């Protein structure tokens, strides 16, 4: 997933970039509204984090123009302006969410993931995506390029959990808890066996990555 951060404070911009990159996102930065709007229009982003108090073109103007040019691009405002009229103005101009400074990075990350899990305009709400991988919740099958994979219940639930937390490293223990239940031995290899079956079904372009000594991750590339 690729995120554009439009923020004029270098310290905050650096903090957000480092934190998001550590979570597996690709991050670009812009330090004024004019540059930010230009990059958002020109390049393909999955989400924009937008400050309001920007030099040159202010954040609300950037939001207005972005909503006209790319109405399905989620924009999350992160601003020191926390008054209700400004928040309402932001939502009225198309903001997907609004977080006031100072903020918790964990809360921001949670809000970002909520936005990235939402179906985009024109998408079926029964389909969730991670890059080119599409998981059909109704048919319980995965589509990756020309490959359509029919999944068992366990395979489907494991892949769904990874896709819903795309970019995040999910431990074997967490998958055991979420998919199989706590009564399974944490030393069991059932997760690894299930991942191998998923990779085989998805083919050589499978986006499931192994993070050594940590778990598994679905990339959104």
Structure characterization notes:
- By secondary structure, the chain is an alpha/beta fold.
- It has eight helices and eleven strands.
- It has helices at 10-22, 33-42, 59-69, 84-92, 105-117, 153-164, 172-180, 190-202; strands at 2-6, 26-30, 47-50, 75-79, 97-100, 127-130, 133-136, 141-144, 147-150, 208-211, 215-218.
- The protein has a five-stranded parallel sheet, sandwiched between helices.
- Helix 6 (153-164) packs across helix 7 and helix 6 packs across helix 8.
Task: Walk me through the topology.
Elements: E1 2-6, H1 10-22, E2 26-30, H2 33-42, E3 47-50, H3 59-69, E4 75-79, H4 84-92, E5 97-100, H5 105-117, E6 127-130, E7 133-136, E8 141-144, E9 147-150, H6 153-164, H7 172-180, H8 190-202, E10 208-211, E11 215-218
Parallel strand pairs: 1-2, 1-3, 3-4, 4-5
Antiparallel strand pairs: 6-7, 7-8, 8-9, 10-11
Helix pairs in contact: 2-3, 6-7, 6-8
